[in-house]
Amino acid sequence: MTFLDIDALSPQPPLPFKAAAEYAETVLGWAREVPAALVQVRNVPYGDDPAQRYDVYGAPGMRDAPVLVFWHGGGWTHGHKEWCAFMAPVVAALGMRLVTPGYRLAPAHRLPAALDDSLAALSHIARHAAGFGGDPRRLYLAGHSAGGHLAALAALRTADAQRAGVPSQAIRACLPLSAILDLHHPLPPAGSLEERVYSHVLLHADDDAPLSPLCWTAGNRIPMHLGWGAQDSDRVQRSNRRTAALLALQPGGVSTHEMPLLDHFGTHLALRDPQAPWYGALLRLVAQTG
């Protein structure tokens, strides 16, 4: 018996291109295979909107475990928290809890709505982590694509996190994967993904700077690990390299990994493999900061 009823997921417009639709079908198929014993609690509300929910995964009996909070991608306009469920067996085997938050999507809820939701979710997770066997003092933030963007913003905009009720020092490290870390484009081509950021995602065009993690690197003290694919989009590769160069000058430090042969979706699909190097980077950061 599966824990995930695909038909119960909230309907969304078709994904904008074939590779994204194939990725979504794959990860939802893998979600069906997650053992029921690893599903601790589903659809925990952290707000009033139906999208403001998170799921918790982990082995029974865990106590004071570090918590990996992983946000789904989807270009801020699509996606479900269940896209990340397939990671649960590997994360549990690492001795961690996996928490997968949902968030409100554009264009109905344009940025910064998803950032506000991400910070609200973190505050709620920290307050309730002990109840599901997690350590509220050890939160590790990550996400794929748009989810990696949100994880990085939540980690780097520390004053906003504290105002939202995220305990100081609770965020131990951040590991965005194939994240869009710079939203700015001087003249995005019509119909391009870069243009969609302005036409579908941002509330105001000039928010492309304050909503870009690259612009919040100064003084960062949170260890960061940036991962992307060698076949990722130019936008992703360039923004990660530029952000890494800035983070390398800050106290928190940064490590990077360009994944050979993998494209934008392949970097997340690779995390089904317990031997994926990304998990090695996660374990190193847990050991260094835990």
Précis, in short:
With 290 residues, the chain is an alpha/beta fold.
Describe this structure in words.
The chain contains nine helices and eight strands. It is of the alpha/beta class and 290 residues long. It has an eight-stranded mixed beta sheet, sandwiched between helices. α3 crosses α4. The longest helix has 16 residues, at 113-128. It starts with 17 loop residues before the first helix and ends with a helix. 46% of the residues are buried. The mean pLDDT is 95.
Give me the secondary-structure topology.
Layout: H1 18-31, E1 39-45, E2 53-57, E3 65-71, H2 88-93, E4 97-101, H3 113-128, E5 134-144, H4 146-156, H5 158-163, E6 171-177, H6 193-201, E7 224-229, H7 234-247, E8 254-259, H8 266-269, H9 277-289
Parallel strand pairs: 3-4, 3-5, 5-6, 6-7, 7-8
Antiparallel strand pairs: 1-2, 2-4
Helix pairs in contact: 3-4
